[in-house]
Design a protein that fits this description.
By secondary structure, this protein is of the alpha+beta class.
Length: 193
């Protein structure tokens, strides 16, 4: 077994590789946001999870562009105060991956990838049509964190849209692994204590 002491590590890229490869599988927040100009942005983030249920809070870590500027998702969340997390299942794997490309702010990934939208229940920001679940979120707090720094976005879920069978089975849901690898839930084990 290899051991790495972070403070003694010269190759800082290895830290990223270890974080992405050892914290697995990670849920994917496929986020839709709306710009001031009304352009819908879609982007996936895999440093995402729930925080608490009372109130229902989620968090997602959003990095900055190489030049240090905000990514469209962070900028739109700051400006509008809302976002939608769309659940990624197997049929949406390819467009989700393609939506991670660096599109210019004036270009919508929705149009570029021929995705369809539908209105959210509470928010002005739309959700992706056909996803099995979406969480409509109001901005709760943004914390700049890390050396880069990153935006740690905390959202309060104000509406859940979901197919009821998800409460019994997560089959088909996509998770992120290290590198360019993903996993699809196909084997669930139920254990009672």
């Amino acid at each position: 077994m290899e051991k790495v002491i972070v403070e003694q590590l010269e190759d800082k890229k290895l830290i990223s590789q270890l974080m992405f490869s050892l914290i697995v599988p990670r849920p994917i927040a496929w986020i839709t946001t709306l710009s001031k100009e009304g352009i819908v942005n879609v982007a996936p983030f895999s440093f995402y999870n729930g925080i608490t249920t009372k109130p229902p809070l989620v968090m997602v870590s959003i990095g900055k562009r190489k030049d240090g500027s905000l990514k469209d998702t962070s900028r739109n969340i700051r400006e509008r105060g809302e976002f939608v997390i769309n659940l990624v299942t197997e049929e949406f794997l390819e467009p989700m991956v393609k939506s991670s490309a660096d599109y210019p702010p004036h270009e919508s990934e929705v149009e570029a990838l021929s995705l369809e939208l539908e209105p959210s229940t509470v928010l002005e920001t739309p959700r992706i049509k056909g996803v099995k679940a979406s969480l409509e979120c109001k901005l709760y707090k943004i914390i700049e964190i890390g050396e880069t720094p990153m935006d740690l976005v905390i959202g309060k879920v104000v509406a859940f849209n979901f197919e009821p069978q998800l409460l019994q089975s997560s089959k088909g849901v996509v998770g992120r692994l290290g590198g360019k690898r993903y996993t699809i839930v196909d084997n669930e084990i139920e254990i009672s204590l």
